[in-house]
UniProtKB/TrEMBL annotation:
Alphabetized SMART domains for the sequence: Cyt-b5
InterPro entries named among the record's database cross-references: Cyt_B5-like_heme/steroid-bd (IPR001199), Cyt_B5-like_heme/steroid_sf (IPR036400), MAPR/NEUFC/NENF-like (IPR050577)
Official protein name in the record: Progesterone binding protein
Family listed: Belongs to the cytochrome b5 family. MAPR subfamily.
SUPFAM superfamilies with a match to the protein in the record: Cytochrome b5-like heme/steroid binding domain
Amino acid sequence: MSTTNREFSAEELRLYGANVTSTPTYVAVKGIVFDVSGNPLYNPGKPYAVFTGRDSSRALAKTSLAETDCVPVTDGLSEKQLIALDKWFRFFDKVSEACV
Ligand code: HEM
């Protein structure tokens, strides 16, 4: 497994959305980019594809699949939601390859 260890702009990260088949599929959580390529749950048309190609921290914190929540903004989240976000972060850290 290779790690790229580099930073992505939000625009660049969009190129790693599930709908762009020529690239790996990335999901960012709390500013860290994870490679979810090969996990069919993130394939185009699947419910978790919405998280790909961006930092979806807010959606994970809120257990939301709404595209408008797929943003890095954590303003106004409750303590409970921030804990949920931390749990998701640890989950991605464990099961996915970190790219940054
Ligand atoms: C009816 C509602 C839902 C059901 C029944 C459900 C069920 C599941 C199941 C069974 C898995 C494990 C799948 C596997 O490993 O093969 C999973 C994973 C996951 N779920 Fe849900 N889920 C629901 C809603 C949501 C929502 C609203 C979110 C929004 C945060 C969410 C986020 C995730 C994420 C991020 C994973 C991890 C995928 C991975 O990387 O392996 N789920 N869900």
